[in-house]
């Protein structure tokens, strides 16, 4: 997404949302927040950031996207049907101009032993990949590119 927006001539600043992040959103024309799911939730720091910056987010075009493997399932790959996106938007009063959801990937070799086993259990329960040596890419990159193009339109 960053590369696509920069190729279109936009300056992009990428910052990790962590607890205690103080960020002045005023200088930015458009704000995009992306968050992944860990253990069934978006990180609390993301929710706190949105809550503390809600007025600034609503004062300009803004976008949100979630990365979660539930989106690999047909019918769960849209913002209005993805349970994690719906929950986040319900928990915040923020109404982003644009919302997207992408499936991401399962990368077992990158996980620690505990995370690998927990994710394997979740994948087994949801009929996903469980090979502890495997990596499975679920991301629909065309959808990511389309989302980036929509973000660019917001910026104009």
Descriptive overview:
This protein has one domain: Rossmann fold, CATH 3.40.50. The model has no long low-confidence stretch (mean pLDDT 93). The relative contact order is 0.17. It starts with a helix and ends with a helix. Strands 2-1-3-4 form a four-stranded mixed beta sheet, sandwiched between helices. Strands 5-6 form a two-stranded antiparallel ribbon. It is built from six helices and six strands, in the order H-E-E-H-H-E-H-E-E-H-E-H. With 156 residues, the protein is α/β, with parallel strands linked by helices.
Brief account:
This protein has helices spanning 2-7, 44-52, 54-58, 83-91, 113-125, 141-155; strands at residues 31-38, 41-42, 62-67, 98-102, 105-107, 135-137. 37% of the residues lie in helices and 17% in strands. Helix 4 links the parallel strand 3 and strand 4 (98-102).
How are the secondary structure elements laid out?
Blueprint: H1 2-7, E1 31-38, E2 41-42, H2 44-52, H3 54-58, E3 62-67, H4 83-91, E4 98-102, E5 105-107, H5 113-125, E6 135-137, H6 141-155
Order of helices and strands: HEEHHEHEEHEH
Instruction: Give the CA-based shape.
Output: globular
Summarize the biggest pleated sheet. Answer: 4 strands, mixed
Structural class: alpha/beta
Task: Point out poorly predicted stretches.
Answer: none
Name the beta content range.
Answer: 15-25%
For the CA atoms, what is the radius of gyration? 16 Å
CATH class membership:
Alpha Beta
Task: Write a concise keyword list for the protein shown above.
single chain, 156 residues, alpha/beta, Rossmann fold, four-stranded mixed beta sheet, two-stranded antiparallel ribbon, 6 helices, 6 strands, 37% helix, 17% strand, globular
